[in-house]
Design goal:
Elements lengths: L12 H24 L2 E12 L10 E6 L8 E10 L5 E11 L2 E7 L12 E11 L2 E11 L3 E3 L6 E5 L10 H6 L2 E4 L4 E13 L4 E4 L3 E5 L2
Length: 219
């Protein structure tokens, strides 16, 4: 709580006490509001549009990232599409990976392992992270595609770790954008776009940013 200091010019001692108590109460209320509005869950809606996938080379191969802090030097998650690189490379399918800086911590895959094979296919998904009871959880939900059907939300693409974090206020969408992209076969992709970001607060409110950010677009 911030301390409030005043000069009581012209006021009696009794009135000064009332004034100080009133303002300090306001300070306490302000601090409690700030605590109540801490971010405890982040959701990012993504969209990938493929032009002509190459089944022989498992192209394109795409990666998206989400981090609870403004960098990837700590725990963060990556989501690989049309390939799986942990523990060894596998063509096709999707995989959620957890990393601590540059060290892999875990990987989770969806049972469908087809390579992308539909022209002009649109793949959409939501990647999220949340804090609850001292646990940080990364998860993929609301995935839709022609090649893999619906994916995410069944628990396959989900990973949790205990943490001392008390909020996700250091989340920065620019970290996601900077560490996402088309790693192979960019000529087979029309666009990769971060469409929306939702911040869920500890007081139950939600703010949404609908200003989409294009990570990759074919010229």
């Amino acid at each position: 709580m911030k301390l409030c200091h005043f000069v009581a010019g012209g006021l009696s001692f009794g009135k000064t006490r009332i004034l100080v108590l009133s303002v300090c109460t306001a300070c306490c209320c302000s601090d409690s509001v700030l605590v109540a509005q801490q971010t405890v869950r982040v959701e990012e809606d993504w969209e990938l549009i493929v032009t002509t996938p190459d089944e022989n080379s498992a192209g394109p191969q795409v990666l998206s990232t989400i981090s609870p802090v403004g960098n990837v030097n700590w725990y963060h998650a990556t989501f690989e599409l049309n390939h799986q690189s942990l523990p060894g490379f596998v063509a096709g399918g999707v995989q959620l990976q957890a990393w601590n800086d540059e060290s892999p911590s875990a990987s989770r895959k969806f049972p469908g392992a087809n390579v992308l094979h539909h022209d002009n296919e649109v793949i959409r998904w939501t990647q999220s992270m949340r804090l609850s009871d001292g646990m940080l959880t990364f998860e993929i939900t609301n995935g839709t595609s022609d090649s893999w059907g619906n994916f995410g939300g069944q628990g396959y693409l989900k990973w949790s770790i205990s943490t001392n974090l008390t909020n996700l206020d250091d989340y920065d969408s620019s970290t996601s954008v900077k560490n996402s992209g088309v790693s192979f076969g960019a000529n087979l992709v029309k666009s990769l776009v971060l469409k929306k970001v939702r911040l869920h607060k500890s007081d139950g409110t939600t703010t949404e940013n609908t200003n989409s950010i294009t990570v990759y677009s074919k010229n």
